[in-house]
Amino acid sequence: MVSDAAIFTSVGNEHSLYFPLESSIIITDKIAFLMGGICMGSYLNPGNLSFRGSLRSKIYVDKSELIAKTNEALCTEQKYICVSRPRRFGKSMAANMLAAYYDRSEDTTELFQNLAISKDRSYRENLNQYDVIKINMQEFLSMSETMEEMLEMLKNYLILDFKETFHEIQFRDEKNLIQVMKDVFRYTKCPFVILIDEWDCLFREYKQNKEAQKKYLDFLRAWLKDKDYVALAYMTGILPIKKYGSHSALNMFTEYSMTDPGDLAGYFGFTEQEVSRLCDTYDMNFEEAKTWYDGYHLIAHRQNGDEHYSIYSPKSVVEAMLRHKLGTYWNQTETYEALKIYIQMDMDGLQDSVVRMLAGEAVQINIGTFSNDMTTFATKDDVLTLLIHLGYLTYNSVDGTVAIPNKEVSQEYVNAISTMNWHGVIDSVESSRKLLESLWAMDADAVAAGVDKAHDEISILQYNDENSLSCTINLAFYFAREYYTIIRELPTGKGFADICLIPRKLHLDKPAVVIELKWDKSASGALDQIREKQYGNALKDYHGSILLVGINYNKTTKKHECMIETMQK
């Protein structure tokens, strides 16, 4: 039963349940209510203690409507579901929730009666109606020396659970997992909901062992595909399912990934509405939280039109709320070395793309050649696609581009690059504070000199057009993100301002800035364009001062020129 102190909110069709510090789930002394003699095992009908723990947490965001989606798939051709998301995005919690809901060994009405799923028409029909198998593959891998040993342990442990639970069954072959499950299903007439967490851990631990990977996929195929005893096979991991050319062992699965999340886009990670309500509850600045943790843009394609989601890293948001301090929390679960391995690869154009993204740009990408593993990279796009699935990049499926999602992840790139020989990129980032101060002081010569310095340092960047100039400017003003929302190509009515720096609410003492860039023309001409096309009017509602900045790169002198003036309102 949910405490009276729990906060239930509803925005549109989204429901969220938050439990503040003082609330809790009341757990009775009778932990396991046994139904029909079906007992809880370690992996068979594992109970609901894990999900109870989630509900009792200081912050719980209700994602129970995911159950309505899995209910739709039960005992259909769509009963095979694979969800891939970055670490700490709520995958395990979701698996624990599904186990608590479907597990027929215990009545879990009290856990779900106040959650959003309780209002769905499929709720009662499927609550506590299935035998559940829940496995964390990482657990078995960590206890094994080889893939073969891992699978043998898995099969033996599952069979032991079956024998202990269904001791009255005469098994045809006690050593054959598939046959044992067939025998159980024949006896109970109750199919299984099979939940596999960290399904892809073998591909992450045995990166180079292609043979082990294939054998593992073949095992999963033999165990799950075309089996009447499967009501639902639900897998979660970081990577999408590996495919080996014609060897598509798990082609029966429908995949929901970071590049194509489908109908499940909003159920992993926090939505913008959910984070906004949490900020209200914990008296945190939503605009600043958005800068730190937002940026994963997922699209669900629906019959009545696309639905766009702005997803936040839940680990980071929860830690920030509870500590009442914005900072890097998601990154603490894995060091920057993991990112460094991939961005320092010798792929043509990879370093250039990373620098451009660090500067705030989006980069074109082809995700179609990615092999869904961590070692097969034919092009830079394959590396960048992996970084999408790892959570280090966000993918825009509309225009086929990738970008660094937020301030927290951007800091991880800075950490990684700081230990690499990237020809002054970090120097430019570190110099950006001084450059910003020169801008505020309207010291045009110092700004021009600072941009010159950034240009000289960033030798990785191909510097041959206005886009490259824009990239240099954005990287040179990297530190401006501490205070500003940076908008490129801001519509103004008479054109587009190249770069606008708009102070966030906590920093309204800073001037807004409109920057126009020119390539081999003049800084004064850039200022003239700002005035003639009234770019400053895009910020007319800003009550503070507004700086107009013209920057030109002279191809002959190979120097930048800058002019700054205050906008007259």
Q: How would you describe this structure in keywords?
A:
569 residues; alpha/beta; Arc Repressor Mutant, subunit A; five-stranded mixed sheet; 37% helix; elongated
Topology:
Layout: E1 7-11, E2 14-18, H1 49-55, H2 66-73, E3 80-84, H3 91-102, H4 109-112, H5 123-126, E4 131-136, H6 137-142, H7 147-165, H8 177-188, E5 192-197, H9 201-205, H10 210-224, E6 230-237, E7 254-256, E8 270-271, H11 272-282, H12 286-293, E9 296-302, E10 305-312, H13 314-323, H14 337-343, H15 350-358, E11 363-364, H16 380-390, E12 394-396, E13 401-403, H17 407-417, H18 425-440, H19 444-457, H20 466-476, E14 484-491, E15 496-503, E16 512-519, H21 523-532, E17 546-554, E18 559-566
Parallel strand pairs: 3-6, 3-7, 4-5, 5-6, 16-17
Antiparallel strand pairs: 1-2, 8-10, 9-10, 11-13, 12-13, 14-15, 15-16, 17-18
Helix pairs in contact: 1-3, 7-8, 18-19, 19-20
